Amino acid sequence: MKVFLRSTQTGWYYKGPSKWTSQQEVAQDLAQTARAVELIFEAHLENVEILLSYDNPRYDLVLPVPQSPFREDPLGRRQTPGDSLPGENGKSAILGKKQPPL
């Protein structure tokens, strides 16, 4: 099994720092999914997926990678995983008051 990172926007494969290729054969084989996850965090990669590639492509497996837990909201404020998004926890996104149950 080979392990690759692939851009979800372009379909290109990770080749090295700031290098991408359209050819899987010349992409960097990370060998382990744990190494792929480490690289995603270390290099701050966004919009990628992990591809587990086997000799027979019919057995290939794509592992989606969720967006970074640190994300920008539309107003430019940073949100961390512990921050509530508008409307969560039963609070109104506008008034900050409890909403009636549905």
Query: In terms of structural class, how would the helical and strand content be classed?
Result: mainly beta
Low-confidence stretches: 83-97
* Number of β-strand runs: 7
Beta-sheet strand percentage? 25-35%
Oligomeric assembly: single chain
Return the string of H and E elements: EEEHEEEE
Indicate the percent of residues in helices.
under 10%
**What does the average pLDDT come to?**
81
The gross shape turns out to be: globular
Roughly how many Å apart are the termini? Answer: 49 Å
> What is the spatial order of strands in the main beta sheet?
1-4-5
The largest sheet, given as strand count, sense and whether it forms a barrel, is: 3 strands, antiparallel
Q: What's the total helix number? A: 1
Outline:
The protein has 1 helix and 7 strands, in the order βββαββββ.
Structure description:
- By secondary structure, the chain is mainly beta.
- It has one helix at residues 33-42; strands at residues 2-7, 13-16, 19-21, 48-53, 61-64, 71-72, 78-79.
- It has a domain at 2-64.
- The protein contains one helix and seven strands; from the N terminus they run βββαββββ.
- The strands form three sheets. It has a three-stranded antiparallel beta sheet with strand order 1-4-5, covered by helices on one side.
Strand and helix map with partners:
Layout: E1 2-7, E2 13-16, E3 19-21, H1 33-42, E4 48-53, E5 61-64, E6 71-72, E7 78-79
Antiparallel strand pairs: 1-4, 2-3, 4-5, 6-7
Task: Name the features.
102 residues, 10% helix, three-stranded antiparallel sheet, mainly beta, two-stranded antiparallel sheet
